[in-house]
């Protein structure tokens, strides 16, 4: 059972901690319920740009001092941006935990967005875009978001566009933060050998002075989906394809059964149905996988593969055939048992990573108000029956509801 502690400061910031006595590393970070879907149309890419700019100067530190603060003691400082979250996090030896806590607080709440640094980082992000555009297996997955969530903020690329990124100024960051940052929708999470009481004292030392900020923000819900089939010619040597559609939201009771279904179809195991049917049996792909991402109001199911241009039609047909089997043929008792054991094993191994555990706790507290213990998730997995999986497959994996995005060599 996940043994964690939570403390809410008077300003609304929640502190979540798990003590792991045998580790010498302290993983910690601020996770905020802010992401690219919260950008206005003219702000596309601003959340990700903020992630970069947090390392470029605060009221008391220049860029070099931020970078050097933890690196000089063998630690790591990093960040990420998703559609619904921004996270600043670090990993250090336990004796440097307070140093990392203070630094993370500084970059999260006291960034000053120096104009000269904005100009420099603008170039870095434009290079990041170019790198991603030169990697079709990454670019097609991001572009598929716009196919499924067309006209909605969830469809926008997290990096933004060259036009939007080229125009951001200091005031844009300040406006975005002012509109979205709220102390009751952010959390500090940590996993280390420190006792919870000492972590709370640090939180009171560094976070008590943060003023209470309460913002009411209504995210635009995703309501309208129309299946599309799009083929784009590019200067590439291999055809790339993504197939998918909207799926269940984060708090939908069908989320875990569908996650298991996706795992059976194209999860990380070499025994996934798509891997066995398309790679092992026919040798048509090097990589083929299925993914399921959840958001607060919807989800996204997708399958990705790359193959020879002349094999694109055949490979697509094999993928659709495997999805049809899931819709029409219930799993036998042994197949169902194996699928459950495999998923439970994968989830348990994921929780072995203390950094991953730290991030998962923060995200879970923000999204669900709790961290669900592994044994409760296991109980839900054990209760899944094959008939339920067939019903879900027929609800989501309907061929007439699928969208297709193909990149083909010109």
Automatic annotation (TrEMBL):
Domain (Peptidase M16 C-terminal): residue spans on this chain: 170-343
Domain of life: Bacteria
Domain Peptidase M16 N-terminal: 15-160
Signal peptide range: none
Record-linked InterPro entries: Metalloenz_LuxS/M16, MPP/UQCRC_Complex, Pept_M16_N, Peptidase_M16_C
Family: Belongs to the peptidase M16 family.
PANTHER family per the UniProt record, alphabetical: METALLOPROTEASE, MITOCHONDRIAL-PROCESSING PEPTIDASE SUBUNIT ALPHA
Name of the molecule in the record: Insulinase family protein
């Amino acid at each position: 059972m996940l043994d964690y502690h939570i403390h809410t400061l008077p300003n609304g910031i929640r502190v979540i901690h798990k003590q792991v006595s045998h580790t010498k590393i302290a993983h910690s970070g601020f996770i905020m319920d802010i992401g690219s879907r919260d950008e206005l149309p003219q702000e596309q890419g601003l959340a990700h740009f903020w992630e970069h700019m947090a390392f470029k100067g605060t009221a008391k530190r220049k860029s070099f001092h931020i970078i050097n603060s933890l690196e000089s003691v063998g630690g790591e400082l990093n960040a990420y941006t998703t559609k619904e979250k921004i996270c600043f996090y670090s990993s250090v030896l336990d004796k440097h935990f307070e140093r990392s806590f203070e630094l993370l607080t500084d970059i999260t709440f006291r960034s000053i967005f120096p104009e000269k640094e904005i100009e420099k980082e603008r170039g870095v992000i434009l290079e990041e875009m170019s790198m991603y555009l030169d990697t079709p297996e990454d670019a097609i997955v991001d572009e598929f978001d716009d196919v499924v969530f067309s006209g909605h903020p969830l469809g926008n690329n997290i990096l933004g566009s060259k036009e939007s990124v080229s125009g951001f100024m200091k005031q844009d960051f300040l406006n975005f933060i002012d509109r979205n940052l709220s102390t009751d929708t952010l959390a500090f999470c940590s996993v280390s050998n420190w006792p919870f009481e000492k972590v709370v004292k640090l939180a009171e030392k560094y976070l008590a002075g943060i003023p209470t900020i309460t913002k009411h923000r209504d995210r635009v819900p995703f309501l309208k989906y129309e299946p599309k089939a799009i083929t784009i010619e590019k200067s590439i040597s291999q055809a790339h394809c993504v197939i998918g559609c909207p799926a269940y939201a984060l708090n939908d009771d069908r989320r875990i059964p569908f996650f298991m279904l996706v795992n059976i179809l194209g999860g990380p195991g070499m025994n996934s149905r798509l891997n066995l049917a398309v790679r092992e049996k026919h040798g048509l792909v090097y990589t083929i996988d299925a993914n399921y991402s959840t958001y607060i109001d919807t989800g996204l199911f997708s399958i990705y593969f790359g193959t020879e241009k002349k094999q694109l039609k055949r490979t697509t047909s094999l993928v659709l055939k495997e999805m049809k089997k899931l819709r029409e043929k219930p799993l036998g008792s042994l197949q169902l048992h194996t699928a459950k054991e495999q998923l439970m094993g994968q989830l348990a191994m994921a929780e072995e990573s203390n950094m991953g555990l730290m991030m998962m706790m923060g995200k879970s507290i923000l999204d669900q108000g709790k961290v669900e213990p592994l044994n409760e998730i296991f109980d839900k997995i054990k209760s899944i029956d094959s008939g339920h999986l067939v019903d879900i497959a027929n609800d989501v994996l309907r061929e007439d509801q699928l969208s297709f995005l193909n990149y083909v060599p010109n």
